[in-house]
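Consider the subject:
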Amino acid sequence: MNPTDALYRLWAKTNEKEDGYTPDQWQRHPLPLHLLDVGQVAETWLDADPLLLGRFCALLPETAPQDIRCIIVLTAALHDLGKVHPLFQAKSEEGWKAGYATLTKQPRPNGTGFDHGAATAALLDYFIKRRKLPDAYKPLRRLIFASASHHGTLYGPEAVQDVPLLGANEEGLALALAGEVEHHFGPMPALPTRPGNDFCMLAAGFISVCDWIGSDSRPFPFAPGVASRVDAEAYLKAHREANVAAQALQQAGLITRFLDDVPDFASFFGFSDLLPLQRVAGAVPFGAQHGAEIAVIEAPMGGGKTEIAQYLTALALARRTASGLYFALPTQASANALFKRTLSFVQRVASSAPVALVLAHGARHFFEAFRELLLRSRYVPMARTTREKQSLQDEPAAPSEVVATAWLSPTRRALLSPVGLGTIDQAMLGALSVRHAFVRLFALGRKVVVFDEIHAYDAYMNKVILHLLRWLRVLGAKVILLSATLPDTLRRELLSAFDVTEPVYEGDHAPYPQILHGRAGTEAQRFVPPPLPSHHEPKRIRVKVEAAADATAAGVARVLALAKGGGCVAWIRNTVREAQEAYRLLSQTDIDVVLVHARFIRADRNRIEEDLVARLGKHHDPEHPRPDRLIVVATQVIEQSVDLDFDAMVSDLAPVDLLLQRAGRLHRHDRSTSDRHGHTAPRFVVLTPTASERHALRFGLSAYVYDPETLARSATLLDSHGHQTWTMPAACRTLVSALYDRDETYWTDARLGCDAERLEAVRTRVRRLTDQMEHAARSGRMPAPDAAMLVMKNPRHDASDDGARVLLTTRYGGHSATVSLFRRMDGRMQPLGQAADLPSDDAGFVARLAVEEAFALSSVAFPWYEALPEPQPAADLAPWASWWQQHHRYDHRLFAVIDDAGGFVLPEADLHGRYTPTEGLVIDRADRDLPDDPSGYADRPPYESL
């Protein structure tokens, strides 16, 4: 038989994994057709997105654009050549019968575990070396390895050594399949130069996405009747005429259009007045040229950084030098808080086509505002089979509508959305050796990527972020860094990763606020607002420092004194345990007290934060008026990205940059003196340890959250002998620089007023921990842009790149346990915070979604420094605990049933606890209290909130 016709007996995908499948319903999609499907997705996408093709052309400048297009389309189509291998065809019994069984008398082999991606790389590499393919393929060896990696791992030569060689007949089929691809898409053009790592990395992500689209059986249904090249030509012609690939890309949310012009800053946002740095933002030439560029925006809290980043992004979108936006934030809560502002931004920049917006973090489906968008888009998440996907078919959206598409639901696809916001962890995965990291780099490499609070990360995360910036630079991304408290040394390091130097400045410190803008290989240009008019009064925060042996007692007294005459007062504590203790004491007074921290179930946390924003936020809400008197006890959760405005504040000692963040919640909005009940100026009280405690570097539980030396430096900067005034915004630059940019030769034991031996012990531990973090970051990174080969070393193949398991890879340590809380109602188990009972496990797909959501919404994490115990749930909860472990083998959690008073017991952990909607989760540590002197314990875990 003609090898070309024989190819159409082989299969690329079948319906065997669909629910209710029986052998008599078996269908297949011929192998050549799947390659044609993916090829036509590639050619359609490149034609519909000139910026995408232009990005490839910029990375291979000596090659004609039409040749680059042809190379990418052919490579995309050849991505599954390895499926011609008998070991792949043997994975389906029916497929073997329809294919190889008609071509050979050999018995069906065992194809279990066969990697057809590695086989693609092995076969093409073998053919190139033995010149069985045209010479034009020879420079493409690295690109072929990248294209064959579409199942998540970048292969190296050693990964294909174990692929069994083909016999003569099978080898002929493989060569015929390569020839079939060239017949339909044209011959491989010759290249003047070999593609570099940047081109190959971009192609690896692009081809993976094309494969995902081309594998979808909705736009590309099974076509078993196509049995020859002639049939395939008709098939491809019909698909092209019907714009099947274009429609699939549009429904997935991958093709869109933004506005063509951007008005001035004030008109774009509808502002009547601009903040100082916003007045110069329009002069920044961001997006004026194609290719990589970076902007660093430094301004105080409430200085309009977010709007500046959005405006610069709008300029790049309108100029067609960027294809979208991803806003990377420190936490899920901060991403949620920015969601509505991002939705409003998308509505401003949308043009004639729907724009897909994604909230990218593991709990996004439980955030109400995003759920509303999903419902408006007629979308139910998490379809798992072809039948379910067909039942959840997206309906076309109206022009200029903001949508959330079903196709972008999986976390690893979320960054592909034209506009997205989420945690920085999702972006960091592009720089780590996890599955489909190159898809994330492909998604980010064509966007404006905004990193908020870029100063806020530890040594491990900083190393990964710097590596990510290097890749974003070579891929041509546009990056914006936001910070109110960025140390000079870190700013230079971030700019250097983008190959940009900082301009020289006069004096001890760089101007503040400022915008730095530069392109790779250049010196940044500085933009500084003009001096304020002489009549303009800068914001001055009156800071009072009080040394106290008992911070809780002193804080209670100070908070009550500040709230005595009225006003809204905050007390920020460094640990949940201390916040709960303060709340219980203050609740005994006649003043309304609210507690907020991270250890509430999601429903209660959302309720508390939404109520506080309604009462203490910028916009007046008649249904939630600002209280005459209110005390809010909180942990670090309100330091950033939550729009709350207090009249006065008390804080535990923290690093001075975080104290500045906390102080940014004071007099945040314009209010009358009467509204502030006599608090005419921002008043900020910081509680510090006594001189003797500082001498011994004893900072109580705060030393489990922050480095003791940093606390000692901050206490010294505060000058605990009395009052001082912070003149904003200048204090942000001077205090942060003094804290972080002066080295150990300046911060001596004498200057800090501490014991020299104790200081050295603390420094030794910090150095050791920093080295561990940086080594872990280096060992887990993707290969560098200038690596000899794009090969993932020791790639993770678990679920750490998806959903809630992201933190396994993006955060160092992970000393916590999670408990799901339930209660008994009428003899049945009910997740805490929900009115519905758990459905039975056999109730179908929608019920499974309900169970997953119930477990997530009723869960709370708490610190745990030992090996996680095996769950021992109550008998009537055990089946659900078993169900969770079966479906989420990487999500180890405990299960507890609370009594009427909120109490529960975790026998496997030997812990008692309670949960109330006002206090959250309280764990009775009893004999498990941590030492109050962490500086002497070299093996204790990294800093984190208790």
Q: What stands out?
A: Residues 24 and 94 are 10 Å apart (CA to CA). Residues 756-779 form the longest helix (24 residues).
